[in-house]
Amino acid sequence: MKAVNGGVKWQLVCFGVLAAICLAGGNAQAYVDATFDQPGTYTLSGDYENVYVGADGNTYTTTVVMEAGVHVNNMVSVASTGALEVYGGSCGLGVSVAAGGSMVVYGENYAVDGTPVAEGITEVSLGFNTLSWTDAAGTSHSLFIGSDEMVQLPGLAVEENQAPAADAGGPYVVDATSWDGAEVTLNGSASSDPDGDDIVSYEWDIDGDGAADSTQASFVGLFPIGASDITLVVVDSKGLASEPVTTTVTVSTWEVGVDIKPESTDNTINMGSNGVVPVAFLSSSDFDATTIDPLTVTLRGEDFNTGLVKVRGKKQNPMATETDVNGDGLIDLYVKLETEKLAEYELDAVCDFGALTYDGLVVSGSDSITVVPQ
Questions:
Q1: Which region is the signal sequence (predicted)?
Q2: 255-372: CATH number
Q3: Residue whose C-alpha is closest to residue 225's, from 257, 258, 249, 256
Q4: What is the bridge-based pairing of β-strands 298-299 and 370-372?
Q5: What does the pLDDT read at residue 374?
Q6: Phi, psi angles (nearest 5°) of residue 139
């Protein structure tokens, strides 16, 4: 394993003589020479006569990768500006590396002229020696090498695992179906891994406490009225986590115009009265107030089953009509609320209403009032 004085020029002479002897037999198959002398990295594929890596005088490095299945009939010559990375393959005569060039052989179970390379040695001097090794698949390889530089033996090549990329979907925008908000299906299945590794965990944080609330690709969560930030981190099969990504879930109520006692500019309510309070829910270009279920009209935050609209008759029909209350050409919902039920709440200057549409969506609106105590 001692370097031979005289360097790669003497080696090239020897290789050339051997090549001439081999070709003189007349049975040699014709192969093509390949020269790589431009900057960048190039991967060999197939069969060659000779391979030339780099060129003396260049100011840049040319790298050539040689893998299993590649065969060079004669030799590989690495110039002072060349770099050869070897994973496998074969060469009829051998590899020469000039001073300044480099050669790296990836593998394990290295041996020089049959003598195993001791564990922990990561480079060897090869004057005229045969280096053998096995690749990651367990296949054996060997090359006759003459090098003016130490040949690097880093072991098996380890592909760097790239982090997966999380995709939380969204932003999600839904209508509230209760005062608690709405159930929303989150879907992170568009997350990906650049290495093609499986994504084994989807860590959703929907409440901002830093802990995973679900590890499934898709799940249903209950979100309050308003905007909520949610974060997703995904983990690949090798245990590498992605950077967190954030999206929003917005749960909204339908805001509707409300006019208490529309026939009057006086919104005074006498809480001691046993009568009714007329209230109009006004339609707009965005919302049809007649889609409101009058039996669900209540105060904001209250149970929709505790309706405030007065009912009558055996069928308990709500006192509600559909009419254009404000003369804008749109049909509104006009209801009559029981004053006694309103008196059960501590109302002050504003009366906030809530209701459900027949489709189960939450509607809210308010108007000012003047309360006459009981």
A1: 1-30
A2: 2.60.40
A3: 249
A4: unpaired
A5: 66
A6: -80, 140
